[in-house]
Specification:
heterodimer, A: Amidase signature (AS) enzymes, 13 strands, B: 93 residues, Histone, subunit A, 3 helices, 4% strand, flat
Amino acid sequence: MSESMIRKLHTMLTGKQISCKELTQTYIAAAERDNAALNAYVTLTPEAALTAAEAVDRKMAAGEAIGLLEGIPMTLKDNISTEHIRTTCCSKILEDYVPIYDATVWKLLKAQNAVLLGKTNMDEFAMGSSCETSYFGGAKNPHNIGHVAGGSSGGVASAVGGHIAAYGLGSDTGGSIRQPAAFCGIVGLKPTYGAVSRYGLIAYASSFDQIGPVTTTVEDTAIVYDAISAYDPMDSTSQGRKGNPVCDSLKNDIKGMKIGMADEYLDGVREDVRAAVEKAAEVYRSLGAEIVHFKLPALQYALPVYYILACAEASSNLGRYDGIRYGYKADNYADVNDMIKKTRSTGFGDEVKKRILLGTYVLSAGYYDAYYKKAQNLRGTIVKAFRTAFESCDVILAPTVPMTAFENGRAVSDPVETYLTDICTVPVNICGLPAVSVPCGFGQDGLPIGMQIIGNSFEEAKVLNAAWQYEQAAPDSYHPADFGVKL
Amino acid sequence: MIDKEEIRKIAILSKLFVAEEEMDQLTEDMARIISFADTINQASEEGTEFDNINNLSNVFREDEVVPSYERERILQNAKDSDEGCFLVKNIMR
């Protein structure tokens, strides 16, 4: 698909083909119907959505012009704080937590009169690659509900891929936007660390986390990225977007663009995925880009470095869940310490507890140097390797995931094997780089394949330009799933 | 290699209970994950000093009083509160 979903709906609204209220009702009805199969939403907010839609209708009735995102029905991953709307992180420990403030990204979109349909499913605290660690059960893949939507932002990918939201925001710590986008055959951008405010994003691993768009087309991703990439004094790591809106450069000619491909990214990747990415490289050649092959040996450390550092940060971030100030609190306890332990032990799921334990282990006396410090130094090595790579290429092309969506229930069986599937996505988070996943065909199993375009820091414009040009040149790489709103 | 004793120790540091019946599976999983993490120690290089990503530096603002959230609203998320405070069992005896 190459036609922007947001532009299409905007044109329908401004052309009076449909009122915002009718459009919203259509999405709500489809979401209520299809959520039974997809389990994409964990909370639906139809009343608030209709109130927001009616305000947009009144504005148009008064003859006022509306912006591109006004009145467009969308969703947020359930770790993005929303005032008055429960935000659970899909954990028992936050099952009834209602934030008293909005995350900055939601504040920005709300100011543009976005219509929030509800909050979407995710792996508990964003820890997982299949959405199956969710306290509410996993989200399903709209291309085949016998398979997972991916994780951790599985719900938003399932909702957008299943057309029960026009677009959404997810968060990406080690691939949590790009992997489910790839599995569900849609587009997902992990922005440069610092480009989008993390204020109000419930923390998993603070030096890796980043919020980004999940959409059906590259242009939609560019529109949403431009809307949310602003400097925010509430996030001390915020830098905002550097340069012009990325929408301005989407259609630039990519003749002469140097696209790097590292062998290490293709090693061990399933044959049909590898073939799809190599075919995409051919498309780029036909568009006049130059494919540059190079080596990235530092990638071999990326996965252990990621899991050590992310779990270390998680063990510290999740220390705040004590049953005292918010969230679930255990009954029947002897004293405060017993209460905190019982709350955490029964409030967190197994994967979360495992990562807290691992994080505590690598930070504990006697192991700190061998794990945490060593991983931090190797993080420096990986950062340097990418910096060197970008001296000889503009962007890097790689698979998003070494395979297509797993069958339901398969990811939970072996912890290490599941971690290994994140091999292509984690390097970008380690280095704070931007990367977009775009659909690039279908596997032997008929499920979507995604590829990543990785850029240097704050070069989202170049990344999305390359992605847009591919999308236009290879329209067969996408087809819509048979769910949701049909327009 | 990590053993049950060590898991009990880090569980205390993490403020988590580990039930005895979960111990075997957890020790096995943790041992696998840690031996996977250990692959970084096969790296011949020491690595590069890592400071931060994308040239971030500390951010300071003027120490000015700005409006904050209402106490009552904050306390609404607490399971137990009393007289404007979070309520817990005695900490000191």
